[in-house]
Write a structure and sequence with these properties.
The complex is a heterodimer. Chain A contains 24 helices and 31 strands. Chain A starts with a helix and ends in an 8-residue tail after the last helix. Chain B contains five helices and eleven strands; from the N terminus they run αααββαβαββββββββ. Classes of the chains: A alpha/beta, B alpha+beta. Bound molecules: zinc ion. The site of zinc ion has 7 residues of chain B, from α2.
Chain lengths: 767, 208
């Protein structure tokens, strides 16, 4: 047997052993235990790869980095090695793909066939069909920005931006989505990137070895310690439960899998398993499995060669990593640290595996089929969204109406008001909230989202309340015909600037703090009724907010209950919460709604006083208001009434949804800058001073062609639009597709800017 | 022939057999109503990802672990900085229960070291508290089991903020015996499945 073993030569690639390790060292340790006399050859692509120095390697075959290698020649050399009888176990995802593609199914190459690799590609991982695992919802980044943003709102922040084989960024805002997409596009074709829902849960993995579709064995690993990057540092090994193992066995057979693999999964609170990755190689912790008595590299080699391996007793079902200093090989002296690149304040070393470089090179090879292909199954964002189509049709008509002769003289930057769009938004909200039975639903217009008289007039016309946050906003609402009976007063500085409280009573008043509530109670008991509805804003414990009463503190809750008890019986008691759904996601918003009802219940139970009014602020994205809220108002009423049986009125304040699509900013092109690389920079006379909300969500951009037609600029692209200000941050669009025909003097209209862009715009750079 | 460890465990089981799971008392007045309502609303606010099965891990960020005086009333809970494992378990059970789930108190015996026991004994003595929960290197502990399927439970340990698993057997900080207290539930449950273990309720079972 020793003689047979001596003949055995095994090449193992992917030797880096650091915080984000490759499996080479683990594979070598396991094979050394099983085949003491075999020749183990370590392969890597950087002399910074720490595993080069691991004692179990008899030889090192160091390659130049991927961008320097002649891939054709390298493939020929590997073929020669395989022909000579050596085995090859790859520890690098992309090397596996490249080898599978380049060397087809050489019997000594222990990697899966290309067809199998295509089936385990993220995000869809079609191979897992039939297994009791779910795939988290995802969407390719090649869809429109609005669809991407809809995905983010639907599933809530954070979401993942991922590359097809590795690299993932957890992002928490639209701006971060854009930045992560741009970063990952450096490595991967943009068409392969995708966004994926973040699953909260415990990380669990399956590792297995298979040979030509035969599952040799598999283990289950639960992480016991992780690195800051989420990589395994310690784990517990057990048998794979049969409900997973049986379907896995048939999947592997179907895929005709050869080699190692790892399925990375997340078990959520309900106990469901979500499959996140199917890595086409052994995991870096594979020696942990050997320690537990399951030596998969050895099983694989034995099955491929027929040479029996030396079994060893299981040592422990659990393993952990420790940091070890080992002598460096004299023939591979450690290179000194490089100097930081200009502009880098600290030295950041690239991962020695060089995978991004290989990914870039493979873009132009046959292996690119696996790397380039767009995700197969797409969780499509609702396309049949009638209201969105209706809204978009109205916007198109409004743009069509823009007189080009006039546009030549248009005094840009200029705000355009889309009257029919505004009418549609207010009318549909009024229709949806038209409830005659208790609790009645009253729509409210938040004056601060856009105090433009045209919006206020529509709000009044459709019977909305005016939601105000200052005395000046009350003045404005009154000037447009609202009575005090139609005004809701909110916010932390609502009495500013002059604290006039001698007016007729308001419709509703919501206190932002315990202190304010105390004051208001004093005023109404001694002086003036202020409002028929007196309420408080609740600060949700699960969200960071500066507003409202922080009920997470028992002291605040107790004081609140004590004050509620002394509210005179002639007043109606209300609670108010306001969290933009676009910032926390729609699912989270509905959960927040439920939890707010629970706080209402708690206040009722503790004070003995019924809650009669709730005021819900949404900050909804227009489509969410149309699709999620207006269509679910009866659900909303039912849940509210179930929790709070004394409820008489729901004030629904949708915020920016009522105005955002109803205005656009027309800007004029001042200069076109074209580079040889094909990117274009457009300078326009608009700026972040007019569009301060530009980075919070996607804005559609329309180009008015000189002959009068117009075109929506497509995304993603390679160009950007910059504002007129001499400020670094004045960038209005990035990764946008700017047609070559755009000329100086053309008009670009930034749509979707009718809410906080308009109302928070400021004068800057105008002398 | 019983090993020393077996003898120690037998004596601990005997010592703790009359222990009943901790409960939080209610004055039946506004003081306790207010605290209880606050607790329930707070738990719903912190449901991770909206799942009623998610662990109420917020409890452990709200209260430190340590010795405390018993009995405990609801109105005392919010103002206390420190709760022992019994109080933490009682709160966790209450959190799961008010979400509509069936829960069982879990009593455990866990193995630490004599050295640890000595330190805990001193810490408890400093506060004038009895450390009758220590028996040599074994300690009495409480957790909360949640019914997740027919007779199937998961066990939440709010003190360590982790789901307890029966798979680790022997060694430091492991569970060596357990009793699921399933009295007073609408449906009579005689046996509970905790992963691969089938455990009769209301009986101390050595699992190691
Ligand atoms: Zn009390």
């Amino acid at each position: 047997m020793a003689k047979e073993q001596r003949r055995l030569v095994i090449y193992i690639s992917g030797l880096y052993s650091g915080p984000n390790p490759s499996p080479g060292v683990g594979i070598a340790r396991s094979l050394r235990a099983a085949y003491p006399n075999a020749t183990l050859v370590g392969v890597d692509y950087s002399n910074r790869s720490s595993g080069l120095h691991w004692v179990d390697f008899d030889e090192i075959w160091l390659q130049r980095p991927w961008d320097e290698l002649d891939l054709k020649e390298y493939a020929t050399q590997i073929k020669r090695i395989l022909k000579g009888g050596a085995l090859w176990i790859s520890g690098l995802d992309l090397e596996t793909i490249w080898l599978a593609d380049e060397l087809a199914e050489h019997p000594n190459l222990l990697v899966p066939p290309v067809s199998a690799l295509n089936q385990v590609k993220k995000p869809a991982i079609p191979a897992c069909e039939g297994m009791p695992v779910k795939i988290p919802p995802f969407i390719p980044t090649s869809v429109s920005e609005r669809d991407l943003y809809t995905f983010c709102r639907k599933h809530g922040w954070p979401v993942w931006v991922k590359g097809p084989w590795y690299q993932a960024r957890l992002v928490r805002s639209w701006r971060e989505v854009k930045a992560a997409c741009a970063e990952l596009a450096e490595t991967w074709a943009t068409s392969t990137l995708f966004l994926q829902k973040h699953i909260v849960g415990r990380e669990e993995s399956i590792a297995f070895a298979a040979y030509r579709g035969e599952l040799l064995d598999a283990v289950y690993m639960e992480k016991r310690d992780i690195t800051p990057e989420g990589k395994t540092w310690a784990g517990h090994i057990s048998r794979v439960p049969s409900d997973l193992l049986d379907p896995l066995r048939s999947v592997i057979q179907h895929l005709e899998w050869t080699g190692g693999a790892e399925l990375e999964m997340m078990r959520d609170g309900e106990g469901d398993l979500w499959l996140l990755e199917w890595n086409p190689r052994f995991p870096a912790w594979i020696h942990g499995s050997t320690i537990a008595g399951y030596n998969f590299p050895a099983l694989l080699v034995e099955r491929a060669t027929g040479i029996p391996y030396v079994t060893s007793e299981p040592q422990s079902p659990e393993f952990t990593r420790v940091v070890l200093e080992v002598p460096a090989r004299a023939e591979y002296p450690l290179p000194p640290l490089p100097e930081p690149h200009p502009g880098q304040s600290i030295l950041i070393l690239k991962h020695p595996s060089g995978m991004p470089t290989l990914a870039k090179r493979l873009r132009n090879t046959a292996a690119s089929i696996i790397i380039k292909r767009t995700p197969d199954t797409i969780e499509l964002v609702k396309k049949d969204d009638e209201s969105d189509t209706a809204l978009w049709n109205l916007i198109r008509v409004e743009i069509d109406r823009i007189d080009l002769k006039l546009s030549a003289k248009l005094d840009t930057p200029k705000w355009l008001f889309f009257e029919s769009v505004a009418y549609f938004l207010f009318e549909s909200m009024a229709r949806a909230s038209n409830q005659t039975t208790v609790p009645i639903v009253k729509a409210a217009y938040s004056v601060k989202t856009n105090p433009d008289a045209r919006f206020l007039d529509l709000a009044r016309q459709f019977g909305f309340l005016a939601e105000t946050i200052s005395q000046k906003e009350i003045d404005k609402a009154v000037s447009r015909g609202f009575t005090m009976e139609q005004i809701v007063l909110n916010g932390p500085g609502k009495w500013w600037p002059d604290g006039r409280r001698r007016r007729a009573p308001l419709h509703a008043l919501f206190c932002d703090s315990i202190e304010e509530f105390e004051n208001v109670l004093k005023v109404i008991q001694t002086d003036h009724p202020l409002s028929q509805i007196i309420g408080v804003r609740i600060r949700p414990p699960q969200i960071v907010s500066r507003f409202g009463i922080p009920v997470a503190s028992f002291d605040a809750f107790r004081k609140l209950v004590q004050l509620v008890k002394i509210l005179p019986s002639g007043y109606k008691l209300g609670i108010h919460f306001h969290i933009p759904s676009s910032e926390i996601g729609l699912q989270a918003w509905w959960r927040l709604f439920d939890s707010m009802l629970n706080w209402g219940k708690a206040i009722e139970a503790a004070s003995g006083r019924k809650i009669q009014v709730i005021d819900i602020g949404g900050g909804f994205f227009p489509e969410d208001l149309q699709m999620e809220i207006q269509t679910r108002i009866s659900h909303l009423r039912r849940s509210a009434l179930r929790a709070l049986p004394g409820l008489e009125e729901i004030i629904l304040e949708p915020g920016k949804a009522l105005t955002q699509p109803a205005m656009g900013l027309a800007t004029r092109v001042l200069e076109m800058r074209r580079s040889v690389s094909g990117t274009t920079e457009v300078v326009v006379d608009g700026s972040i001073a007019e569009l301060p909300d530009i980075w919070h969500y996607p804005h559609r951009v329309v180009w008015m062609r000189p002959e009068g037609s117009w075109k929506l600029l497509e995304q993603p692209g390679t160009s950007r639009i910059m504002g007129r200000l001499c400020m670094e941050g004045d960038i209005l669009a990035e990764n946008i597709n700017v047609p070559r025909e755009i000329r100086k003097g053309d008009i670009l209209i930034f749509l979707d800017s009718g809410s906080y862009d308009r109302s928070m715009s400021y004068a800057f750079g105008r002398g | 022939m019983l090993s020393d460890a077996d003898k120690e465990l037998n004596s601990a089981v005997e010592k703790f057999s009359h222990f009943i799971p901790s409960i939080i008392l209610h004055h039946g007045k506004d003081c306790c109503v207010m605290a209880h309502e606050w607790f329930k609303a707070l738990d719903i606010s912190f449901l991770i990802d909206g799942s009623i099965y998610s662990a109420p891990s917020w409890i452990r960020s709200q209260w430190k672990w340590g010795g405390m005086d018993w009995p405990l009333f609801w109105c005392q809970v919010p103002d206390l900085k420190t709760l022992d494992c019994g109080a933490l378990a009682a709160l966790s059970c209450e959190a799961f229960r008010q979400r509509g789930l069936s829960v069982f108190s879990v009593q455990l015996i866990q193995r630490f070291s004599l050295h640890d026991a000595y330190h805990w004994d001193r810490k408890w003595a400093e506060k004038g508290l009895l450390s009758n929960w220590i028996s040599g290197s074994l300690v009495y502990h409480e957790a909360c089991a949640v019914l997740i399927g027919p007779n199937q439970v998961r066990v939440w340990d709010p003190t360590d903020n982790t789901w307890l698993r029966p798979s680790q057997c022997g060694g430091y900080a492991t569970t060596v015996a357990v009793r699921f207290v399933a009295e007073g539930y609408p449906a009579k449950i005689d046996v509970l499945k905790w992963e691969y273990l089938v455990i009769p309720s209301n009986t101390w079972i050595k699992i190691c």
